[in-house]
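Quick one, tokens below:
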């Protein structure tokens, strides 16, 4: 407050001769206003502190959630690398078997052109690659989140 407001005038003096008590009432209103302002400022600081604590807790929660998500991503990347490696092996095996089949088809064609009777027996094997209609692995399950 400015110094002009602090100085008391003859009208607001506690020793008011008129006996109306105008100075006392003004001082009381000023004191009540100051107390109200202090209380309001205290509540404002408390709300600000509460909000800060809430934000700090949210940051901690989001950091934990981020770490868990990154861990899941790493697990998915490892699984993807494993499946990708298995697919590469299967593609190579497919290429090899396709080459063999083409070669055998050529031999069979030559034999048939030569007039040889060709009897192809049913193959009994434990190689799942030679039985593509019977997959040797369980069906793929969708990845759950």
């Amino acid at each position: 407050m400015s110094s002009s407001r602090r100085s008391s005038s003859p009208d607001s003096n506690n020793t008011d001769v008129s006996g109306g008590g105008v100075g006392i009432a003004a001082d009381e209103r000023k004191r009540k206003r100051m107390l109200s302002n202090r209380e309001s400022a205290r509540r404002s600081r408390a709300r600000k502190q509460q909000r800060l604590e809430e934000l700090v807790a949210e940051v901690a929660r989001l950091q934990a959630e981020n770490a868990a998500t990154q861990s899941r991503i790493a697990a998915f990347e490892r699984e993807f690398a494993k499946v990708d490696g298995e697919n590469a092996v299967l593609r190579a095996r497919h290429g090899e078997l396709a080459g063999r089949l083409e070669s055998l088809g050529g031999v069979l064609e030559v034999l048939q052109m030569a007039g040889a009777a060709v009897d192809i027996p049913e193959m009994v094997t434990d190689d799942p690659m030679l039985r593509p209609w019977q997959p040797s692995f369980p069906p793929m399950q969708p990845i759950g989140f």
